[in-house]
Amino acid sequence: MSIVSNILEALRRIGSPSEKSALRRQDQQLHGMKVLERGRVIARHGKETATGFHATVEPYPEDVTELTSAEIEPINSNASLASSLYEQFNVDPAAHMLDKLDQAFENWLDAPDRFGFLDEDVVEILGASFGNYCNETLEMKWVKVSDQYGVSIAIDGNEFEFRGYPYDSIRKRIADSEHTFFRGVYVALAHQKQSSRRRADAA
Predict the structure, then answer these.
(1) Rounded to 10 degrees, what is the CA torsion of 27, 161, 186, 49?
(2) Collapsing DSSP states into helix, strand and coil, what is residue 98?
């Protein structure tokens, strides 16, 4: 067993709750795939850092298409509902965008009364808001990814080959009641951009 494998196995036993849940989610995501490499990564963006796990799998066919304006319209509509969600769950209106997302999700998770905001409502509203923020600040765009595992809505780098899944990032954390992750995911995406290849068709 490699040193990296030993470290990952140790973290499964004695890691923090967030590390254990992250590894468990990654195990589920990698099920059935041929994994070439796995490890722990420390992402850096400016003065911020975020710890996570990466995996390299054997390439498989996928189709990536940019969303049309008609498909983006409901995303923007959902993002516009974020202000009412923030107000309902006592989010500081002066906070940084990423902190508002984290506060809203944590306060919603802990709230005895969720005021009618169902799981998927929060996924759609905060996912749209986070995706739009990444698109604006990291030069990304909304895309549809189709592969042997299904269809997902994602954000993809315009000039560099990096990708994020805003909705999945939220949805998979609800079951574990895990919060305060938006900033870490953003730092990881920014780090990916810095270390990714430039697209062949980029200007």
Answers:
(1) 80
(2) helix
